[in-house]
Amino acid sequence: MGKSTIDLLRRVGIFEGISYLVLLFIAMPLKYFAGLPVFVLIFGMIHGILFILFVLLLFLVWQRHRWPLIRVFGAFIASLLPFGTFVLDARLRKEY
């Protein structure tokens, strides 16, 4: 089940990254330039759920694979940056 947790972390990371980009580059402009805040509510909720799932999976991967704390911290920081989870995915794909 070890590798499957990394695969799941990668998949959730991709969806989390996509939801973050949609929130930043589509929903937020619609809110502030078109007066449509509903998209921020929808995609904000989706992104929030995916972010929490990503963090929980990161904790599981840390426990099962004994990742160094600096690597866990780097993966967490990647989830906070636009396009960060895509860079993380590319690195994990090479390694695993």
From TrEMBL:
Cell compartments where the protein resides: Cell membrane
InterPro entries membership: DUF3817_TM
Keyword NADP: no
Residue ranges annotated for the DUF3817 domain, each copy included: 8-94
TM regions (residue ranges): 12-30, 36-62, 69-88
Record Pfam families: DUF3817
Membrane topology reported for the UniProt record: Multi-pass membrane protein
Keyword Cell membrane assigned: yes
Entry keyword set: Cell membrane, Membrane, Transmembrane, Transmembrane helix
GO cellular component: plasma membrane
NCBIfam families: integ_memb_HG (TIGR03954)
Protein name per Swiss-Prot or TrEMBL: Putative membrane protein
Species whose genome carries this gene: Bacillus methanolicus (strain MGA3 / ATCC 53907)
